[in-house]
Amino acid sequence: MNTLGKVLLYLGIYALLHFAYEVTGIETFKPISGVDESVFEHLKIGFYAYFFASIIEYFLMRRKKLLSNFWTSRMFATIFVPWSIVIIWYLAPALIGKFGLQAELTWALTVTFLSGIIARQVEKALEFRELPTGFGLSVLVLFVVALVFFSVFTYQKPWIDLFVDPLTLGSH
C-alpha cells in the first residue's frame, strides 16, 4: 500500500472512530472511540485508527510477500502516532497561542494527516531493517501497555492532567 493510501485509510478510520460512540451510544465502541473532546481521547483514536489501518493493510497485502518486520514496524508506528499528535498539536499553541474553533479544526485535521505521514515513514524505515529480538519484544510490551493505558483511562481518567502542577492540586 502506498503512503497516501495508508494515510487516507487512517484518516477515514480516525473520522469513524471519532464519532462512533457519540453517534451510536454502543458501549462496545467506547474503548476504541472518542467519548469526549479531551486530548487523551484524540490520542486514543489515533492509536486505534492507525492500528486498524495496518490490519486492513495486512489483508490487502497478504498475497504479496510480507517482510518479517511487518507487524513490529506497524506496532511501533501505532505506538508512535499518539505522541507525534501531541508534539505536533502543541506546536501551534507554543508559537501562536490560543486560536479560534475553525483554525483549531483545520489544525487538528492537519496534525492527524501529518501524524499518519510520519508514522508511515517510520514503519517503512523499520520494515526493511534487521531488527534485534529485544527491539521486537520491547515494541510488543509497549504496544500491550498502550492497549491497557487507552482502555483503563477511557473509563477512569488519571488523577492529574498532563499540564497541571501537582503542587497546585492540594491534598486529595
Automatic annotation (TrEMBL):
InterPro entries: DUF6512. It holds the Pfam family DUF6512. Keywords: Membrane, Transmembrane, Transmembrane helix. Signal peptide: none annotated. The chain crosses the membrane at residues 7-25, 45-61, 73-92, 104-122, 134-155. The keyword Transmembrane helix applies. This is DUF6512 family protein. The lineage of its organism: Bacteria, Pseudomonadati, Atribacterota, Atribacteria, Atribacterales.
